[in-house]
C-alpha cells in the first residue's frame, strides 16, 4: 500500500499517520497503548501486547468493555491468519418461554436475563497459550497495577461514565446497587483528571493471571458469579461457565480489487461488510466526495445489512452458508437492485454483531486485530459484588420469535456486533483495522477499506474522513462534517439524510498497515476518542 503513505489528509483533523519499525499499538486509551508497547519491549510479541492492552482497557475504559464481556481476534503470525471467536453462549436453561414467564415479551437490556457467558478471560488465555511469548501473569501486570494504584480519568471516558451514571439513576426497574458501589462510590461518576482506583478489579485480574483464567470459569470467581446470578434469579450457572470454551475459526474473506479483506465468520456481523464490498466491487469509483459514490455505498450496505439481520446467527444454524452469501452470483443479483433512487431494502435468498478495538504489530511481522466489549457501555448493569466484574448483555440481540434463525435458546451464540478486520495482498499481511460501535462496525469497515484502496488515503486520513451510517429503511445519519451539498443531493435521490451532532455515534477505529518490502509500520488512531498510537 505504498500509494497511501504520502496522501495528504484532506479532512478537518490536522493529524498525519504515525510511522515506526519495531512495534506499534493503536487503541482508544493512551495508557493501554503504552502498556502494550511496554510488554513488547520486555520481550513480548504483538500477541502479548494485544493481551496487555486489552486487559488494561478493562481498567482504563470500563465504559466500553470489561472482564465480563466477549472478544474476537484475527492474528497474523508465521505467514498465516488465524481467527479466535471468544463470544459466549446463552445459559443452558434459558428459553423464550422461561423469559416470558418472568414477565418479558422482549429481551430486556439490563439485569440478568440478557447475560451470556463471558468470553474475554479465556480469549486472553487462549491467545497467550498458543501464540504468546510471555505468561498471562506478565501480560496482565500493567492492568493490575493501574487498577490497584489508580490512573487519571481522560475527557471522553469521563463523559461516557457520567452518561452511564445518569442513565442508571433514572432506571427504576433494575437493581444497580453493586454498579453504583463499584463505579460511583462517591455518589457520582469520576471527573476528568481525577484518580480512579479499583482494588477489586486488580484482585480479579490477579486471579485470572495466576490460573490462566480457570478461576473465572471453574474456581473462586466462577462461584461468585454463579452465586450472584442465583440470588438475583438469573439463568447463568457455574455449569454454564465450566462448559465454556473459546473457538479457533477459519477467517472468511472477499477479494476486493486485488486485496483480501478478512473477517471472523458468523456469529459475527463481519460478513455484512464483506457482502457490501462484494457488491461494490462491480463498480468503478474515481472520486470519494461524490453523490454517486455515497449513493452506491449506502444502497449496498442497506442490502447487506438486511441479509445480515435475517440470516446471521451461529454458523451451523444459518439457513444459508457463508459461501452462498458471499458468492459472485449473489453479489450480482443484489447489485442489480441498485438504481438511481434510494430503495427500501429487503433481505434476499441466495442459492447454490459499547466496545474497544486495538491493533498491534511487532518487528517480526506478527500483527493482531482485537476487539472486546460488554455491549451498550457497561453492558447489563450487573456487577458481581467485590470483583469489579461487569457482565455483558449480549443476549439482548436474540430474537423472541421462535421461527427466527437467531431465536433465543439455551447454550446458543447470538448475532454478534463486534468484529475485527484484516487485509492481506499476495499472501502478505497489510494489516489490522477495526471500527467499534454496535451496528456501525461493518459500515465503518467498508468505509475504511474503500477510503484506503479506492481513494488512496493513508491510515489517519482514512479514519478522519466524515462517516455515515444506515439506520433503517431509507434513514442515513451523517456526521456534521459531512458535505452539506452532497447531503442535499442524496436527499433528492430519496435518502432520508439526518445530520448527527454526536461524533461517537459513528464508531471509533484504529489502523496499522505494514509495508511488505521494508517492514515499516504506519498507523492511524481515532480522532473521535482519546485515541493514541504507541510506537517503538
TrEMBL record:
Segments crossing the lipid bilayer: none
| This protein's UniProt keywords | Acyltransferase, Glutathione biosynthesis, Hydrolase, Transferase, Zymogen
List GO molecular-function terms, semicolon-separated. leukotriene C4 gamma-glutamyl transferase activity
| Cited SUPFAM superfamilies | N-terminal nucleophile aminohydrolases (Ntn hydrolases) (SSF56235)
Describe which pathway this protein belongs to, using the record's wording.
Sulfur metabolism; glutathione metabolism
Q: How is it modified after translation?
A: Cleaved by autocatalysis into a large and a small subunit.
Q: What catalytic reaction does the record list?
A: an S-substituted glutathione + H2O = an S-substituted L-cysteinylglycine + L-glutamate; glutathione + H2O = L-cysteinylglycine + L-glutamate; an N-terminal (5-L-glutamyl)-[peptide] + an alpha-amino acid = 5-L-glutamyl amino acid + an N-terminal L-alpha-aminoacyl-[peptide]
Give the Enzyme Commission number: 2.3.2.2, 3.4.19.13
Q: Which family does it belong to?
A: Belongs to the gamma-glutamyltransferase family.
Q: Partners and quaternary state?
A: This enzyme consists of two polypeptide chains, which are synthesized in precursor form from a single polypeptide.
Q: Which PANTHER family match?
A: GAMMA-GLUTAMYLTRANSPEPTIDASE (AFU_ORTHOLOGUE AFUA_4G13580)
- This protein's name: Glutathione hydrolase proenzyme
Please report the organism this UniProt entry assigns to the protein.
Answer: Oceanobacillus jeddahense
GN (gene name): ggt
Amino acid at each position: 500500500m505504498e500509494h497511501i503513505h504520502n496522501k495528504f489528509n484532506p479532512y478537518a483533523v490536522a493529524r498525519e499517520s504515525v510511522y515506526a519499525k519495531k512495534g506499534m499499538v493503536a487503541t482508544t486509551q493512551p495508557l493501554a497503548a503504552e502498556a502494550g508497547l511496554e510488554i513488547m519491549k520486555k520481550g513480548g510479541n504483538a500477541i502479548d501486547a494485544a493481551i496487555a492492552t486489552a486487559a488494561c482497557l478493562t481498567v482504563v475504559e470500563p465504559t466500553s468493555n470489561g472482564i465480563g464481556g466477549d472478544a474476537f481476534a484475527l492474528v497474523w503470525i508465521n505467514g498465516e491468519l488465524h481467527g479466535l471467536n471468544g463470544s459466549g453462549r446463552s445459559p443452558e436453561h434459558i428459553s423464550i418461554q422461561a423469559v416470558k414467564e418472568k414477565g418479558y415479551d422482549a429481551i430486556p437490556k439490563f439485569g440478568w436475563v440478557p447475560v451470556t457467558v463471558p468470553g474475554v478471560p479465556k480469549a486472553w488465555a487462549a491467545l497467550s497459550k498458543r501464540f504468546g511469548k510471555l505468561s498471562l501473569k506478565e501480560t496482565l501486570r500493567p492492568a493490575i497495577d493501574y487498577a490497584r494504584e489508580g490512573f487519571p480519568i481522560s475527557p471522553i471516558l469521563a463523559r461516557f461514565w457520567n452518561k452511564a451514571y445518569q442513565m442508571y439513576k433514572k432506571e427504576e426497574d433494575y437493581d444497580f446497587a453493586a454498579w453504583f458501589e463499584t463505579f460511583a462510590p462517591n455518589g457520582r461518576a469520576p471527573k476528568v483528571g481525577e484518580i480512579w482506583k479499583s482494588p477489586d478489579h486488580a484482585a480479579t485480574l490477579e486471579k485470572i493471571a495466576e490460573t490462566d483464567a480457570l478461576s473465572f470459569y471453574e474456581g473462586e470467581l466462577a462461584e461468585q458469579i454463579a452465586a450472584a446470578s442465583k440470588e438475583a434469579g438469573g439463568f447463568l450457572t457455574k455449569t454454564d461457565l465450566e462448559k465454556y470454551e473459546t473457538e479457533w475459526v477459519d477467517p472468511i474473506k472477499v477479494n476486493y480489487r486485488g486485496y483480501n479483506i478478512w473477517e471472523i465468520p458468523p456469529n459475527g456481523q463481519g460478513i455484512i461488510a464483506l457482502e457490501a464490498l462484494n457488491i461494490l466491487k462491480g463498480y468503478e469509483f474515481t472520486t470519494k466526495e461524490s453523490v454517486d459514490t455515497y449513493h452506491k455505498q449506502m444502497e449496498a450496505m442497506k442490502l447487506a445489512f438486511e441479509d445480515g439481520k435475517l440470516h446471521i446467527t451461529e454458523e451451523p444454524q444459518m439457513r444459508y452458508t457463508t459461501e452462498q452469501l458471499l458468492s459472485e452470483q449473489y453479489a450480482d443479483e443484489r447489485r442489480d437492485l441498485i438504481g438511481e433512487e434510494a430503495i427500501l431494502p429487503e433481505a434476499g435468498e441466495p442459492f447454490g454483531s459499547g466496545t474497544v478495538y486495538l491493533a498491534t504489530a511487532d518487528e517480526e511481522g506478527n500483527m493482531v486485530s482485537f476487539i472486546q466489549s460488554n455491549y451498550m457501555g457497561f453492558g447489563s448493569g450487573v456487577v458481581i459484588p467485590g470483583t469489579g466484574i461487569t457482565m455483558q448483555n449480549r443476549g439482548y440481540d436474540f430474537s423472541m420469535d421462535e421461527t427466527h434463525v437467531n431465536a433465543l435458546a439455551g447454550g446458543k451464540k447470538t448475532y454478534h456486533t463486534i468484529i475485527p478486520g484484516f487485509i492481506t495482498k499476495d499472501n502478505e499481511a497489510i494489516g489490522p483495522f477495526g471500527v467499534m460501535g454496535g451496528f456501525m462496525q461493518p459500515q465503518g469497515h467498508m468505509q475504511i477499506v474503500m477510503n484506503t484502496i479506492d481513494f488512496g488515503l493513508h491510515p489517519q486520513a482514512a479514519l478522519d474522513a466524515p462517516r455515515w451510517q444506515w439506520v433503517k429503511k431509507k434513514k442515513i445519519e451523517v456526521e456534521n462534517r459531512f458535505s452539506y451539498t452532497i447531503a442535499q443531493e442524496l436527499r433528492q435521490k430519496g435518502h432520508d439524510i439526518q445530520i448527527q451532532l454526536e461524533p461517537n455515534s459513528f464508531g471509533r477505529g484504529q489502523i496499522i498497515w505494514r509495508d511488505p518490502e521494508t517492514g515499516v509500520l504506519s498507523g492511524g488512531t481515532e480522532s473521535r476518542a482519546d485515541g493514541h498510537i504507541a510506537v517503538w
